[in-house]
Design a protein that fits this description.
Strand content: 35-45%
Distance between the termini: 64 Å
Helix content: under 10%
Number of helices: 4
Number of strands: 46
Largest sheet: 11 strands, antiparallel
Number of domains: 4
CATH topology of the largest domain: Coagulation Factor XIII, Chain A, domain 1
CATH class of the largest domain: Mainly Beta
CATH architecture of the largest domain: Distorted Sandwich
Shape: flat
Amino acid sequence: MKLFRIFFVALVLGVLFSFTKSIPLLDDNFLRPPLDISLYIAGAFGEPRGDHFHTGIDFSTRGKAGIPVHAIADGYVSRIRVQAGGYGHALYIMHPNGYMSVYGHLSKYSSLIDQYVTDQQFAKKSFEVDLYPEKDLLKVKQGDEIAFSGNTGTSTAPHLHFEIRDASGESFPLNPLKWIHIEDHKAPVINGLMIYQFNTIECLAEEKLYTVTKTGNDYTVTPTIVVNKSKTEIGVRAKDFMDASDADGDFGIYSIHSSIDGKEFYGFSLDILDFAEGRFANAHIDYAENKMKDIQVYRNFLLPGNKASIYNNIINRGIFELNDTLKHEIEIIVKDYTGNEATLKFKIKKSSITNKISEIPSKGFVKLFKWNEDNSYNTDSLKITIPSGNLYQDLYFSCKKKNHAAGKIKSPTYAIGDPFTPIHNSVTLDILTSNIPENLKSKAVICFRNYKGTVSGKTTSWNGNYCETKIREFGDYYVTLDTTKPAVTILSMVEQNLTDNNIKVKITDNLSGVTKYNGYIDGEWILMELDYKTNTLTWNRNAVPNGSIEKSIAAGEHIFKLVVADEVGNTTTKTIKFKI
């Protein structure tokens, strides 16, 4: 059914929006550019990024915020989301043909949309809102100014995140380069070849990274690669560059197709994605290499649990067997969307001497978890439950008690699993605690320490005498008490006088994280915007709408109060008198 859907979507696209690369910029029957500046790419469609595929294109605004953003076609605003993280200020427009365009990391909306959003924020007394306006409320015409670019949410620099989604309107992002032509003559770059070898237990594969030699856009590995086992998998370390990109920009790969002795056994291309399949990005590339070395090795084979629908021409999951000692030629063709390609060719043969990998690791594991079965590991103090489908391949699971409870830490620290093994969806972890008084149980938090030593608190509940949470990464876990109130620092008042008509406050929390914040002036709720990256709350008197209580604040002395709470209920209240 999914293959049929993809074929149907492709057919609809072909009929509705015929496109050839000879068109200088866009297919004007459908859309115009979202920006009126030269289009430079800062991020490509489909790049594997931190547990997901990038679902749009990032247009660089060359370090500037506030660039006008335009509707690419007629339509109506179907959704507006404001959040501290994620896309920050985001706008969704539904078009008459059923396609949706999405604009993220905006600094602000155009006046009519901004008025609607602000009214809803005041009505809900919340900066973060997720709104679905009525169809006829906020109509737009092609070219209308709808917003301004920015750096809100989890953006790391000013840019516009732009998406086109298919006729269902939500679930299937499409590659915008089908309509937006970016001049590009740079071929992808291949930096290395990975050979994986295994016997019957695939999760125990041996791997080796080979250096490649470049001639033009052709690459090779010499001499002939000799392997000791028959079952072989390959991966390629590669990246793409574009003419119209930031100077330091490097991007993900649009397509890879691999063959042995002229017969293709693996391929993928990034024309359409499925939001439900985003986490499969962790199986698309070598997760361990990415985490340990910050490099991307694209697997030219499918792990058993990788069910993403971006692949084609797959034979035996991309695994090939060398059943003789003859030389075989492998060809890997790496392409970008505009057709520039790099080719890696090499010869490989099986040695007449076969070395076996041990079927069982020598030490350190407690149980074999099967990727396609429900798995659990229980002791008298710890439980972990991993439903079927949450592992991409079989796993020799390890769990080690590292130290004992002490002080505020109310459980042993457990090294759970291999931190370089990905988990697809959240799985359940329970840790037995001791010596927590009843009045402090609400302060119990399961902490996660990753392989870099960074500690974060997890949303925690009680399951009998166990603290319980959901995890998506292996690493160190323990239970501690969070009894520290959030820290609040006023940044923008000079001798209690309002400066630049705004109030800025930095809010931080040591562990469980800030979940609630509300500001008041003279007892009336005010709209304060949270910057995720700087943990800064801002009230801007000049930015509030006419007629609001904030605009009518008269000259004289007033009282500003801020109430901030973390996830376990620790609350800080800050009250300051100020003058206007």
